[in-house]
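pasting for ref
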Amino acid sequence: MHVVIPYVVGALLFGLGVYGVLRRRNAILVLMAVELMLNAVNLILVTADVSLRSALTGVAIESWARPGAATPGTGGVFALFVIVLAAAEVGVGLAIVLQYYRMRKAVITDDVRLDTEVSGDDEERVAG
């Protein structure tokens, strides 16, 4: 398989995620678009690791890594970190969205006011 195909698929997935973040109004769909972008980065990291390893076949490890080091799996390790960050992002993001929904009864991102604080009167007005 050509190395270019996963890079193109990753770029398309990332572009689709950027489009989703910029154009969606629902906060849940924005979070899904961010997850799509993170998965595209995972695909590119793993593909870069595999293509770099195949390009360096037959080259002594000491010529491109520190001496005495084992063969590093940097693409897979970085992908694992991105997966952990994505899980944390989902937890925090959903908690924020659920709290906002409890306060405002909507998750439309266009209506989110970031420059004002919510007072007790606003909470009573929304609830009643």
